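ARCHIVE RECORD
Type: protein–small molecule complex
Small molecule: NDP
Source of inputs: curated submission
Record status: active
Notes field left blank by submitter.
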Amino acid sequence: MANILIIGAGGVGRVVVHKCAQNSDTFEKITLASRTLSKCELYQKEVKERYGVDIDIAAVDADSVEELVALIEKVKPDMVLNIALPYQDLTIMEACLQTGVHYLDTANYEHPDTAKFEYKEQWAFDERYKEKGIMALLGSGFDPGVTNVFCAYAQKHYFDEIHTIDILDCNAGDHGYPFATNFNPEINLREVSANGRYWENGKWIETKPMEIKMVWEYPEIGPKDSYLLYHEEMESLVKHIKGLKRIRFFMTFGESYLTHMKCLENVGMLGIEEVEHNGCKIVPIQFLKTLLPDPATLGERTKGKTNIGIVATGVKDGKERSIYIYNVCDHEETYKETLSQAVSYTTGVPAMIGAKLMMEGKWMQPGVYNMEQFDPDPFMEELNKQGLPWHIKEL
Ligand code: NDP
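STRUCTURE (tokenized, with ligand):
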């Protein structure tokens, strides 16, 4: 029976709190902390009404190691689930190290002043986590997260050697706004407006944003324009999937989204550096986030489905094969269950599953790990039980 501290009461945080409360036989004591206490109060009320579960709440600035250490010492959790923003990864990992508590997150560290994300700084905690006897599970969302587990599952059960992987992420949901992002707008727009990158024959190949496009037929959705992006799970998968020759990541975008984004970029609204405005300093992309709909409020308006999966090709017993593993998730169904749209749901459910497997000792080993480094089978079983069933097709 675990005592957990969840940090970050945003769109994904809501799903994590709901799913942990649904699994109260594993998570005996839950504390939710965030910068804004009122959001924690709202989610506290929701889980009491829906599941009869009492959770504790607290305010914390997760940019401050000192505040985090004080909170962890008070709550005494077995682990911390970091569901705040990638900017807080290092401070929360440091606080966990100082207090000897396990750690999990859903996105890799990003420096606020550089639109570049990588695992280097988080992997650098590995030796110290091992010495302290604690574990960090990195990227336990959908992508990264479930996509890494799908790759590990393909590797374990379907291939002697995987040669290529395409990760395919489609959100065919419609929220009815001319423009909104389905998770934190600042993180989302920084990711999507950056140069694309994929890995082939041992080298990273850079592309212009949205330079490579293909049309993919997504089961239960249909054909969609899919654009090559850089995505963080590729950095760990190239290290851990043996024999890999190429890995790419594609995401769908509608024409309206791309036109809005281009226009905002052209007028400087995606800028991450401070500008002076009427005597105050503002960061354009942060101001844009204030104007855009809060992703946590999109749930009740969003209709349609997401489909995220991987296509792996390679050899088994000397024969070439290609398999597609994917999940389809319905925005209206996830709203009914957790008052959240499917992008938050598909991230929050795997965060809860990662924590569950750690707390049950099924995925537990001192050090810093990515998802594909563990046995995928218990995670795949939990996906089917916890609302994200998956399908496999031989192509
Ligand atoms: P939101 O912006 O909705 O929520 C972020 C939350 O973190 C907010 O409640 C915010 O609090 C809190 N927060 C931010 N800064 C601090 C701080 N310094 N101290 C304490 N709390 C803080 O984002 P999402 O819920 O959409 O995303 C959460 C995470 O999930 C992000 O890291 C995102 O990159 C990741 N993600 C991962 C995906 C995956 O598949 N792996 C997919 C989608 C998202 P406040 O409201 O008070 O400002």
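CURATOR ANNOTATION: The longest helix spans residues 342-359.
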